[in-house]
Design a protein that fits this description.
four-stranded antiparallel beta sheet; about 240 residues; Rossmann fold; 16 strands; globular; about 20% helix; Jelly Rolls; ten-stranded mixed beta sheet
Length: about 240
């Protein structure tokens, strides 16, 4: 049963491939404002284990819960699994992370794209594991959104390019190769690239600046992560 104070996301067009939001349980949670905005932009919201607590705090009911319940509170688990239409409870001893299992659920559900949030901060190994998981699921066009940045996983097999609007002009943008090498082009930046091969985690693409509306980054080979810094929120905004 849906609580009156909660928003539930349902697929707006049952004939279309849905967009998914995966909400993780980072020790540095995303803001409730961001979570609500992202949830409103997709068709299905998935609580990834302790991510259910983030959704509850934001007043968003998950379409699905996925995880092993090793980090979520008992009350949050009960509420999330009561609200969710789909519950995938996995054993703690398993060969995949909860995030990977959530991507598997999204692919099973025919996802055309996936947004993820509340997955950075805390342990470095977890953060690197998140980036590796995004790279492994390039075919689902994953995007990582947090309060301070927005990142796209680019690959010819999924999302091959990203074009930026006027809000990005003046912002810092970095491109990191997740393959050895990745072939990257950048246009509309302070320093452009033309089918340049970036070695794995090469720092050449770090701290560029967006200078034009319609600036574009494309990946013609391999995989890369494009990270756009977001301006800090103004007080009262």
């Amino acid at each position: 049963m849906e609580d009156a104070g909660h928003a539930r996301c349902a697929c707006r067009d049952e004939g279309a491939r849905p967009r998914y939001l995966l909400v993780g349980g980072s020790p540095e949670p995303s803001s409730a404002e961001l979570v609500r905005a992202l949830a409103a932009s997709v068709d299905r919201v998935v609580a990834v284990d302790r991510g259910a607590e983030v959704l509850i705090a934001a007043g968003v009911s998950p379409w699905a819960y996925v995880g092993d319940a090793d980090s979520i509170s008992g009350d949050a688990f009960e509420e999330a699994t009561r609200e969710a239409e789909v519950v995938r409870l996995h054993p703690v001893l398993k060969d995949a992370t909860d995030l990977t299992l959530a991507f598997e659920l999204a692919e099973e559900g025919g996802a055309r794209s996936v947004i993820a949030t509340c997955l950075t901060g805390g342990r470095l190994d977890h953060q690197l594991g998140v980036i590796g998981t995004l790279a492994a699921w390039a075919r689902l066009r994953p995007e990582l959104v947090e309060d301070t940045f927005r990142a796209w996983l680019l690959s010819p097999e999924g999302r091959a390019s990203v074009t930026l609007d006027e809000a990005a002009v003046g912002a810092t943008l970095s491109v990191l190769s997740l393959a050895d090498p990745a072939t990257v082009s950048e246009a509309g930046m302070r320093w452009d690239l033309d089918h340049h091969e970036l070695a794995l985690l090469d720092d050449l693409g770090v701290s560029n600046v967006v200078e034009a509306v319609g600036a574009r980054v494309s990946c013609d080979g391999g995989r890369c992560l494009v990270v756009l810094d977001l301006p800090p929120k103004k007080a009262g905004s």
